[in-house]
Amino acid sequence: PPSSSVSSDSSHPYYDVARHGIIQVSGDDNYGRKLIIFSSCCLPPSHQLNHQRLLQYLKFTLDQYVEMDYILVYFHHGLKSSNKPSLKWLREAYSEFDRKYKKNLKTLFVVHPTNFIRIVWNIFKPLISHKFGKKLTYVNYLDELRDHLNYEQLIIPPDVLRHDEKLRAAQKGGPPPSVKTPPPRPPLPTQQFGVSLQYIREKNRGAIIPPVIHQTVTYLKEKGLRTEGLFRRSARVQLIKDVQKLYNLGKPVNFDEVGDVHVPAVILKTFLRELPEPLLTFRVYNQVQEILSVESSLRATRCKQIMESLPEHHFIVVKYLLCFLHMVSTESIVNKMSPSNLACVFGVNLVWPRHGSISLSALTPINIFTELLIEHFHAVFGSRCPPGQVTP
């Protein structure tokens, strides 16, 4: 029988959390694995629940079963802005989990996933190990669980059952729900696109300049400085995808063989755009937006202050990239890429807001800011010279 006695025993050390029934454990399934169930719909509003206690209780529960194989079933339905834990909490929960509990976890079933899950998954992607990602299974309807575990043993909250009925009814009548596609797998160790600078550095023997930036810049510096409209042209989509794939698999890329100088140029822009956090960091976005309110003659100095406030790793990569863009602009008589033309291309790939997209009115300050960085490169970046600094 389901061992949910905890919820009713007021002498239990975690009675305050346990009584909500958020976490339930039910006996061994057909394959001898414990089932641990986490139901979002049982989470009370955040102000009524101490999330630190919830984490301790989760650990307290897992500690009893961590030595045996177990399955985690997560019912996502019922998670609302009023009761959902913060991302900081999730990160803390995951790092605890990763350290101690993931070894014997056989599968994590995420039941009734939504876009919110995808978004969280993308935020956490750089942290999540490839192994753990393989244990994640999306379940759109409760029925699908029958193939994987002893369904009768599951303690399913009534809310979840009702939600499942609604979804099934909707599917009979309307188009199937769009949640079918599972999320992208966690990155491979060789992944270069869409992962953080930190991740790339750790997986590439401490390289401060990400290999994609280093290789495209080195190639373009040698072969592209005099190409008219550099960074303005696009390249064949399939070609770009192929090159990205080579990079992500850790295979060597030879731009001479590709035979089109615009390919490395597009790859560099794509790399910047796919970073989980912009190269200039989220924190800088509002400061960039205010550049127009700074008197013209003081703007370069303001840029310098903002740049010098960047974390060291970001600063070194930004300085490397902008030194190169400055070089491109010095050849603008031939390549037609003035600081302002380069800024139009690169601005949106260097900084963007944490939420939402860039409105047209927000573009102007971004482009002006980027133009200042390129045109006044020496003034803006000259004073701060970290020991690990690299020049193109």
UniProtKB/TrEMBL annotation:
It comes from Seriola dumerili. This is Rho GTPase activating protein 8. Signal peptide: none annotated. Residues 13-168 form the CRAL-TRIO domain. InterPro entries: CRAL-TRIO_dom, CRAL-TRIO_dom_sf, Rho_GTPase_activation_prot, RhoGAP_dom. It holds the Pfam family CRAL_TRIO_2. SUPFAM superfamilies: CRAL/TRIO domain (SSF52087), GTPase activation domain, GAP (SSF48350). One of its GO terms (molecular function) is GTPase activator activity. GO terms for cellular component: cytoplasm. Residues 195-381 form the Rho-GAP domain. One of its GO terms (biological process) is small GTPase-mediated signal transduction.
